[in-house]
Specification:
heterodimer, A: 505 residues, mainly alpha, two-stranded parallel sheet, 74% helix, 1% strand, globular, B: 170 residues, Four Helix Bundle (Hemerythrin (Met), subunit A), 2 domains, 79% helix, NADH dehydrogenase (ubiquinone) activity (chain B)
Chain lengths: 505, 170
């Protein structure tokens, strides 16, 4: 393309262009559903649908590359066209592709009829991308619900396992609760700002004389997002949902969904209402502090590997909250960097847990990992790598990511949170290293049936391992990209107050 | 107090009372019936605001179609009898009631703190200029057309999800 395309959002067609990756994914998911209806038959081996969804994700990624060259006029369109959106889109699409690849074997092993599985996965991706890429509260809520509904079903997809249904129901009930809080907060925010557009809100609202209404709206919004990113004290659903869900969906929950909710969290709180930092800082500070302390302590006594990783994922939400509260360019860049690193290591760790659990997910206790280092050296080595990265030890991506978050926090003057981050990370070494000690220093438990390492799974493990190591050793390039994509995001939006649909009349 | 205000207070009071009754009845059929009353009262308030079309939609879609669906589901699942409440024990009730009261107090103080009648009567001139149907249709299908499209996808996902969950294992 020679000249960059400009979108003014004067006609509805502009929205189709602006939402091209999402449109590709949604259309592809519809085609998958129709294909299965006509040609799917009864066979449980639906790999054609799986590969089809890989192709669709690839097409959406191409559309996203094209979107990087498109520019918007002004920065208050309902759909954002900034580096932050395209960057997070890439992360979600990559996570989606990795999840599809590890789902092939899992679904065959657990005998899951999976045409709708892949379609729902794609719809969940659409929801995430809308959630993370919109500047309008209505679209953000719709994206939130689209993602959540698809994932509630995915969590309960394994109908033969009562744990899966239980997890789905718990997640659904608490998720609906969270949606109510979110909607209540949005309603109060619209009531005080008079617009649903986040970009305009910063202009319409005066931070110096903030009304009670606005502050309450911020608190309710923080609670709603706190549920979705599993911030303490709204984390209670997390271990149950993570344990009961089919393992690929657990990886999806841990990586992409949390990332999408965080991206919207940042878009509203940092980009839209950054002037209100003084008002929302207190509540987010407590969220961040509790979310770092509590799960790291509870994880010390976990014996189920999926629950342990669930608590680890809650703790990581706490670290990301530190990046959010910093609310500066470094904070947002470190969030994006950490999101890539975290996606790679959590998907990799769950991929290994998935294979080793065996048919019917029988082997999930920590004691099942005794002596693994000698009976399955490759699996043990890779799991050790991912755990070391999750713990944040050099030379892995997790270390660099935590380091950048620390730096952003110190730059913004949150020395106490930075110290807390270091201390809780030190505590977390104990439970990550416990797994590694089990694998290498204990005698093997019992002889088990051999597990199949399919090519798709090996690919995922290789990709995750390479990202984890490379980003640990050469972090400058991804960090540069992350910085570029958030550069200049917090610019004034005064010039376009008149273009909002609600204030236009 | 003129006639319009009188109607407003009656409708608003009815909406509040029937909403409270709806969430406190043990029998789901009663709850559904009180929901109808609440929806009708809100439709009345829409009429007072000059939004006749919205009121008609409210009655047709919610009080009509959605309620029939509710009652069908109650009938098909044989839920038409009293339920044990899910919230057990005094502590649970105290917690839930306290949470509700806090949220209620929140909105009360927030509304009191808000600048009274900020925009004045916005709706009536808007509907007079556009007509009652176009006044709803124009924002919906012009400014928020994307939201309508995404809602379509959302409903489809809900439907696919329901089919997946309800499907009998072969």
């Amino acid at each position: 393309m020679n000249t960059a395309m400009h979108l003014e959002f004067t006609s509805q067609l502009d929205y189709l262009w602006a939402l091209m990756p999402e449109a590709v994914l949604a259309t592809g998911a519809l085609i998958l559903l129709l294909y299965d209806g006509f040609f799917g038959g009864d066979s449980s081996d639906n790999r054609a649908v799986g590969w089809g969804s890989m192709v669709i994700i690839a097409l959406a990624a191409v559309a996203n590359v094209w979107l990087m060259g498109v520019e918007e006029v002004g920065d208050t369109g309902m759909v954002a066209l900034d580096g932050f959106r395209t960057f997070t889109n890439f992360i979600f699409l990559a996570a989606g592709a990795l999840i599809v690849l590890i789902s092939f074997d899992y679904n065959r092993r657990e005998d899951i009829k999976d045409a709708e599985y892949y379609a729902l996965l794609l719809f969940a991706l659409v929801g995430m991308m809308i959630l993370a890429g919109s500047r309008d509260l209505i679209l953000i809520f719709l994206g939130f619900e689209l993602m959540s509904l698809a994932v509630y079903v995915l969590v309960g997809f394994n109908r033969k396992d009562p744990r899966s249904s239980e997890a789905s129901l718990k997640y659904f009930l608490l998720g609906a609760f969270a949606s109510a809080f979110l909607l209540y907060g949005m309603a109060l925010l619209v009531g005080s700002a008079g617009t649903t557009n986040i970009g305009l809100m910063g202009v319409m609202l005066n931070a110096e004389s903030a009304e009670l209404l606005t502050v309450m709206a911020l608190a309710l919004l923080a609670i709603g997002f706190g549920f979705k990113v599993s911030a303490v004290p709204f984390h209670v659903w997390t271990p149950d949902a993570y344990e009961g869900a089919p393992t690929p969906v657990t990886a999806f929950l841990g990586a992409a969904i949390k990332g999408a909710a965080f991206a919207a969290f940042i878009r509203i709180f940092v980009l839209g209402l950054g002037d209100f930092h003084a008002q929302w800082e207190a509540i987010i500070w407590w969220f961040a502090a509790l979310t770092m302390i509590v799960p790291n302590l509870i994880a010390l006594v976990q014996n189920n590997i999926k629950r342990l990783l669930a608590y680890s994922s809650i703790a990581h939400a706490g670290y990301l909250l530190v990046a959010l509260i910093a609310a500066n360019t470094s904070g947002m860049a470190s969030f994006l960097f950490y999101l890539i690193a975290y996606t790679a290591m959590i998907v990799g760790a769950f991929a290994i847990v998935l294979v080793l659990a065996g048919r019917g997910d029988r082997y999930q206790q920590l004691s099942d990992y005794d002596g693994l280092g000698w009976s399955r050296p490759w699996a043990a080595a890779l799991l050790a790598l991912f755990l070391v990265s999750l713990a944040g030890l050099p030379p892995t991506a997790g270390f660099v990511g935590k380091f950048y978050i620390l730096r952003a926090a110190v730059e913004a003057g949150y020395l106490n949170l930075a110290i807390l981050l270091v201390l809780t990370t030190l505590v977390s070494y104990w439970y990550y290293l416990r797994v590694i000690v089990n694998m290498y220093m204990k005698p093997s438990a019992e002889a088990r049936e051999g597990v199949a390492w399919a090519a798709s799974l090996r690919t995922v493990l290789a990709v995750c391992a390479i990202i984890t190591v490379l980003m640990g050793i050469f972090p400058s390039w991804p960090l540069l990209k992350a910085r570029q994509s958030v550069a200049g995001l917090r610019q004034a939006t005064e010039q376009v107050v008149e273009t909002d649909p609600l204030t236009r009349r | 107090m003129d006639f319009t205000q009188l109607i407003f207070y009656v409708a608003a009071g009815l909406a509040v009372v029937s909403s409270l009754l709806m969430i406190t009845r043990k029998n789901p059929v009663f709850s559904a019936m009180f929901l109808i009353v609440a929806l009708f009262s809100i439709a009345t308030i829409f009429v007072l605001l000059g939004a006749h079309f919205l009121a008609a939609l409210q009655v047709i879609v919610y009080a009509g179609a959605i309620m029939v669906l509710f009652l069908f589901v109650i009938m098909l699942l044989n839920l038409g009898h009293d339920f044990e409440p899910d919230i057990r024990g005094r502590l649970g009730w105290a917690f839930m009631g306290g949470l509700g009261l806090v949220l209620f107090a929140e909105i009360l103080t927030a509304v009191q703190g808000a600048p009274g009648d900020a925009g004045g009567d916005v709706l009536t001139p808007w509907f007079e200029a556009k007509g009652v149907v176009a006044g709803v249709a124009e924002p919906l299908f012009r400014d928020y057309a994307v939201a309508v499209e995404i809602t379509g996808v959302l409903l489809l996902v809900a439907m696919v999800g329901a089919v997946v969950i309800a499907r009998r294992e072969a």
